[in-house]
Amino acid sequence: MERPASVSGSSLVAIVKTEDLPDRSRLCPIRLLHLLGYSQGRKVVSAHTRWLDGQLFASKLFYRWYGKIENRRVMKRQRHTPAVPGVAIAFSAILLGIAIALVLAPYILAHWARLYTTDISLLIVASIGVLTIIVGRLVVLKSLADKRYQLERDLLKGFLEHIPDNVFFKDRDSRFLLVSRAMANYCGLADPAQAEGKNDSDIFSSEHADQALADEQAILRTGEAKIGIEEKETWPDGHESWALTTKVPLKNQRGVIIGTMGIAHNITDRKQAEVRVQYMALHDTLTGLPNRILLEDRLTQAIAVARRNHKSVAVLMLDLDHFKDVNDSFGHYVGDRLLEAVSMRMQACLRDIDIVARLGGDEFVIGLSLVANNQDIETVTQKLLSTLSDPFLIDAHELQIGASIGISQYPADGESSEVLIQFSDAAMYEAKKNGRGTYCFFTPKLTEATRRRQKRENDLHQACARGEFVVHYQPQSSMDLRRIIGVEALIRWQHPEEGLISPMEFIPQLEELGLMVEVGDWVLRTACLQNAAWQKAGIPPIRVAVNVSAQQFQRGDIVSTVGRTLRETGLRPRWLELELTESLTLDDAETAIKTMQALKRIGVSLSLDDFGTGWSSLSYLRKFPLDRIKIDRSFVRDIGSEPAAEAVVRSIINLCHNLGFGCIAEGVETSQQLDYLQKQKCAEMQGFLFSHALTAGECGAMLRLGKPESMGIPGLTEDRLLSL
User: I need a surface site. Which of 122, 167, 251, 540 has the fewest CB within 10 A?
Assistant: First the structure.
C-alpha cells in the first residue's frame, strides 16, 4: 500500500476493527489513518506496514493510547453520531417549520373572515410553535455536534499525552500548535503547552532550527513529505540526542496546505551504541589508547606534516620489563590495572601532538612529531623510562617495573609507518638484550631481534615439511551448557627446540612470508579429515569451524579449495564453517560478497570472527550472506567491570537477532560473563569456562560424552592451559 504524502479531512476520529481483537473497537485519528495508508470507512484488517524505521505499527500504536482512555462506553455510543454541517442543520429546521405551517394553513384560511381576531392569535401561536421547533432542533443538533467535537478533542489530547514518540503540529510559519508529552520531555519542557507559538529556534540549536525550517518550507512549497530524516541536537549542557523524523503536509478540507505534522522517534540509544562500536574498533578496550589501525593512520599524517616542514618523526616501541611476572604473581586484574596506570603516566610525558598507542599485551608505540634532532628524542625517552621506573600502587600492591624502548626515525630509517614500527620493534629487542630498562636506536646492523626473526622465518619454511604444525580443537557450547554444538580448529606449532608456540607469535610471520595460503589449506584439510573420522567412529555430527586468512581469501582460490577438500575428505558441506575476519571482508566488499555467495552455494556456513575489532560497516554487514557473528573476547572480558563493554555486547547481540544471524561469544571465562550472556539471549559460547583447546584425541573423548569435564575449574587461564 502506498502511503499518501499529506494529511487532510475535518474528522479526527474513526472506529477501527482489527482481526486480532474482533470483539473490541478501537478509536484512532482518521488523519493518522490517512497518513498510514488507510482510507476513511475502510476496515483495517492488518497493520503490518512499518513506519518510522520499523518502530511504529499502526494497530499497536492506537492500542497503546486507546488503552489509556477509560470512558469506552461513551465513545462507542458516540461513534454513530453524524457530523452534520451547520447549513444542513438550519436548512432541515426551516423545512420542518414550513411543513408545519402548510398543515395549519387551511384551518387558518377557513376561519379568516369569521374569526379574524382569533385567527390572528392562532397564527401567532402557530408561528411561535414553528420557531420553537426550529430553535429546539438547532439546539439539539448543536449540542450533539459540540459533544462530538469535545470527544475528538479529548481523543487527540489522550493520543498526544501517551504516545511514546515526538508528535507535533505546526502552522505555515513553522510555529508549534500542538506537541505530544513525549516531545515536551525530549525538549526539557515541563508542559506541552509551553511549546505552543514557539519556533524551532526557541527550543533547538540554530543549526537544527535552520535545517528544520528549510525542510518545512520545502514541504509547504512542494507538498511532498520528508521521510526518515536523522536529526542531531546538541543541548546546552553538552549532551547529544538523535531523532528519526518524518514530516508531512497538513491540509484542510479544500486541499490547501495549512501547516505540517511530524513524528520523531528517539534513536539516541542506537546512535550512541554505533559510536561506541566505532570508537572501540579504533581504540584499545582496556586503556582507551589508539590501536594499530588508528596508530598507523596518525603516523602517516605525522610523516606528511614532517615532510612539509623538513622535520623528523620518531617511533618508539616500548615494552614493559617483567610484566609477565606481575600477571603470574598477582593475577590478570592487577595486570590490567597496571597497564592503565602505565598508559596514563606515558600520556603525561608527551605533547598533545604526539601519539601513544597500545598494540596489545605490554607493548606500546609512541610517535613523536616534528622532531628536530636526536637530543630531543633522547630527552623524551629518558623521561619515559624515569617515570615508569617509579613504583606503582595497585590494589595495595607496590609494583616496580621498567621498560625497554626501541627507536626508529623518519626519514633516516624508513618512510612508512609499517617500516618504522617494524624497525623500532627490532631496536627494542636489542635494548632488552642490553640489559632492559634502557633504549636503543635502530641501525642497519643485525641485532639479536633481527637474527632471531630470521631464524624463525627459516624454521617456518621447514615446519610444514617436517610436520611440526598440529591442530587443536576448542569445543563450542550452547549457552545452557547442555550440549556441544561445534568445535573450532586452532593451529599450534610444535617447535623442536622451543616447544608449543602460540599462533599469535608466528601467524603474522606466515603472512609476511606468503606461507599463509599453504598453511591455511593444510589446516582446512586436517580439520575436515578429523571431523569425517569422528563421524565414522559413531560420534554425532557437529560443525568444525576453520579460520580463513586474508591471503587465503584474496590470493588463493578459496572456493575451489573448499570444494576440492570436501570431496576428497568426504565431509558433508553442512558440517564445515569458515570464519572470516572483518578486515578481509571490508578491504574489497563487493568482491568479498561474490566469494561468500559462491561458498554458500557449496553449502558451508560462514561466520564473522572477532566482530567489533575492525572498522565494521553496518551497510555491508546486512549484505553479507553470514550465518553467525562471533563477539570478540576483548568485549566479553570486560563484562562486569566496564558498562561500555556490556553495552557493546548487548548491541551486537541485538544486531544479530535483528539481522537473523546466529551469535557466539568467545573468550567466556567467568560465571559472571556467562550469566550476562544468557540474560542477553546469546545462543552459543566458547571459552575456558567450557573447555580449552584440546588435541584431536582429547576432543573426540569429550564429544563422546557430549559435555565438558573441565568446566568451571578455578584459576583456569589461557597461559596455563596453553602450557599443558
Answer: 540
